[in-house]
Known about the structure:
alpha+beta
Amino acid sequence: MAEVVYMPRLSDTMTEGVVAAWHKKVGDQVKNGDLLVEIETDKATMDFEAPFSGTLLYAGTEAGSAIPVGELMVIIGKAGEDISSVVSAAGAKSAAPAAETSSAPAPKAEEAAPAPKAEAPAAQVMAAPVVAASADERMKASPLAKALAKDKGIDLAQVAGSGENGRIVKRDIETFVPAPVAAEPAYAAAPMVAGQESFEEVRVSQMRKVIAKRLSESKFGAPHFYLTMEIDMDKAMEVRKALNETSTVKISFNDMVIKACAVALHQHPAVNSSWLGDKIRFNKHIHVGMAVAIDDGLLVPVIRFADQKGLSAIAAESKSFAARARDKKLQPSDWEGNTFTISNLGMMGIEEFTAIINPPDACILAVGAIITKPVVKNGEIVVGNTMKVTLSCDHRVVDGLVGSAFLGTLRQLLEDPIRMLI
Length: 422
């Protein structure tokens, strides 16, 4: 009696299987568990074993061709058996949930007919394919044999295979008798960890939706490129210490970066610009946005006319903005109108990073931490303090030369802060 096998569904997204290689040809004798065919799915190449013993009477297609899931793939029966009616019946029912043999109903398309009691059900054979990286790397054991060996704790290296080319099949595992081995030192078993998978889903806030939309548009709409420069901060540290001895408001390094950027933007107006599609806007006023992280996301309050303000005024305004941002008391007018933005993660210990341009700006400056390390000065290795900054540029507006010139001016101002105080 001929037995029919349909192309199984080997993955949840599989719609057809490509026959990568046949390991048996029509007319060959096959045994239950023999490697029959390699099936390439949309995710991997898997071994498929013969679910029945007998003669291979029909192979649905040649190697390299595809067979849709649920259509006739193989017929196994007795040598010389007439299978014309079986092929016709199987072809007519290949799209149905169940298949037929020549004389009795067959199991569902995802299953093959059950084998004799001594063998595992065909459904198990078909449901246990093994990903095959290549013919050389494949272990010479059937997937079912591997599963049984794992359950019984049998080392496959100790098992002699009776299948094709020494392949280990199910019966080899069932009849395996381990050889006596010398006692090995006992090792402490790894502790069992009983855990429970869990998660929490939180509805996206409107602020996060706006951030996601604007930054996605910026990242994928504006062609970003990045310029990084390392700045000697020794003099900036000295000047900040001296200023804080007399200033009524404590001046931070971020305040000094804001002031230095504002001065540098005067000399490089192309950086203080916006892309408007059919025109470029070169802003003559300088409004510097400073990114402030809050629980719900990120706000960018704007210090207006930063080039015209002293360090104490910038320090007082930035502290007020940061406090009001965290208390959610900022008004839309506080975060609109930026012409340039600064994002500083130095206080978090981040040494270097890149930032996504904050529309409508053409550039954003990412500021890292001040790091103490050996540096070379006047031909000698000494201890120095350096800070890395990275300028993200919209290449539609700012070219590499323009961005580099801006960073050069910024470095001069921070390495000799007296220049921006004049």
